[in-house]
Design a protein that fits this description.
Blueprint: E1 5-7, E2 10-16, H1 18-35, E3 42-48, H2 52-62, E4 68-78, E5 81-90, E6 100-108, H3 112-122, E7 128-136, E8 149-153, E9 159-160, E10 176-179
Parallel strand pairs: 3-4, 3-6, 6-7, 7-8
Antiparallel strand pairs: 1-2, 2-10, 4-5, 9-10
Helix pairs in contact: 1-2
Bound molecules: inosinic acid and magnesium ion (MG).
Inosinic acid binds near residues 76 and 106.
Length: about 180
């Protein structure tokens, strides 16, 4: 595993290896496959940009040939903290009516993005909505929102890599890094 990563004057240290991530992605995929067993029209909704790496791995592990994939984009973060307002940047192009939707997110922090998204989707009358996230910060939740599927529950620290960014950088790192504690 690479050592420290420095970006924008901040230092990040190794936190989760690609091997650890892969094992948990497989576990979550097994759970989703089991829960979607009796559904005929699953659609995965990847939340851009951060979830694109997780979504690519997860969808291939679930391996449902009858599933569709679509994308939405929301933003609430500037630098390393939440602004508290959630903006929709790219909307849905797919009709979700009657479909079993699995939202795929990189991280649930305050839960504001998740709730806003679920509210937007329910207006389209899907058969069901499930929520999968790579990372979940339970201590940051301002909303009490709890995802259906969680690869890792983590402390409320800023995370980088495997799709997650700092002002657009770091998404291509294979491992996950955490911001170094200030001494
Ligand atoms: P929420 O609305 O506060 O739950 O924030 C969710 C969004 O904030 C995520 O989809 C990420 O884009 C971003 N975010 C939250 N925590 C982190 C982090 O530790 N690293 C990178 N992005 C984060
Ligand atoms: Mg995001």
């Amino acid at each position: 595993m690479e050592n420290k990563v420095k970006l924008n004057g901040l230092t990040f240290v190794p936190y989760l290896t690609a091997e650890q991530i892969s094992a948990e992605v497989k576990r979550v995929a097994d759970e989703i496959r089991r829960d979607l067993k009796d559904t005929c029209k699953p659609i995965f909704l990847c939340v851009l940009k951060g979830a694109f790496v997780f979504a690519a791995d997860l969808i291939r592990e679930v391996g449902r040939e009858d599933s569709k994939v679509s994308f939405v984009r929301y933003a609430s973060y500037e630098g390393t903290s939440s602004t508290g307002t959630v903006k929709q940047l790219v909307g849905l192009t797919e009709d979700l009516g009657g479909r079993d939707v699995v939202i795929i997110e990189d991280i649930v922090d305050t839960g504001l993005t998740a709730l806003r998204m679920i509210e937007d989707l329910k207006a389209q009358n899907p058969a069901s909505v499930r929520f999968a996230t790579l990372l979940y910060k339970p201590e940051s939740s301002k909303t009490g929102f709890v995802p259906d599927y969680v690869a890792f529950s983590i402390p409320s620290k800023f995370i980088l890599g495997y799709g997650l960014d700092l002002d657009g950088q770091g998404r291509g790192l294979k491992d996950i890094y955490v911001i170094e504690d200030e001494a």
